[in-house]
Specification:
Blueprint lengths: L3 E6 L3 E7 L6 E8 L3 H14 L4 E6 L9 H16 L4 E5 L3 H11 L4 H27 L1
Parallel strand pairs: 1-4, 4-5
Antiparallel strand pairs: 1-2, 2-3
């Protein structure tokens, strides 16, 4: 059975979301606070394995017009290192507006700025995964 884990990779934090058992919707899971590349990879690989993922979906930050940015290059580098440590597929997915949508959701729920930073990355990862799951459904 398929189980997806999505990552929203940032400079300070990595948001993690998982699919429900039927791959119908995404659930925000956790936010990993970054330390250094080796520790980050170890921590994220551990989470991916604990969740029983069969595929990882990584948000790829691109500019509004679809061109690559400095952050795109950093994220691609992280993904390349992650792929070396995993024996499951890793796919990239456009993440434009997912963090903005997550912020807007948390603000609409009245969450304080301080609390938002603990949830926004996991919620952004869930937005990435929801988009991926919707694309799969649309193609079948």
């Amino acid at each position: 059975m398929e189980r997806y884990v999505a990552l929203d990779v940032g400079d300070k934090r990595i948001g993690v979301a998982i699919s429900d058992p039927f791959n119908t919707y995404a659930l925000p899971s956790t936010t990993y606070t970054r330390k250094n590349l080796a520790a980050d990879l170890d921590g994220i690989v551990k989470i991916i394995r604990e969740k029983g993922a069969t595929k990882v979906i990584c948000g790829l930050p691109v500019n509004f017009d679809g061109t690559e940015s400095v952050q795109t290059v950093k994220t691609r580098r992280f993904i390349a290192e992650l792929e070396k440590r995993l024996n499951i597929p890793v796919e990239c997915c456009d993440e434009r507006f997912t963090t903005q949508m997550a912020h807007e959701t948390l603000i609409s729920e009245g969450m304080s700025r301080e609390k938002r930073k603990n949830y926004v990355d996991a919620l952004a990862a869930a937005n990435i995964l929801d988009g991926y799951l919707a694309a799969i459904k649309k193609s079948t």
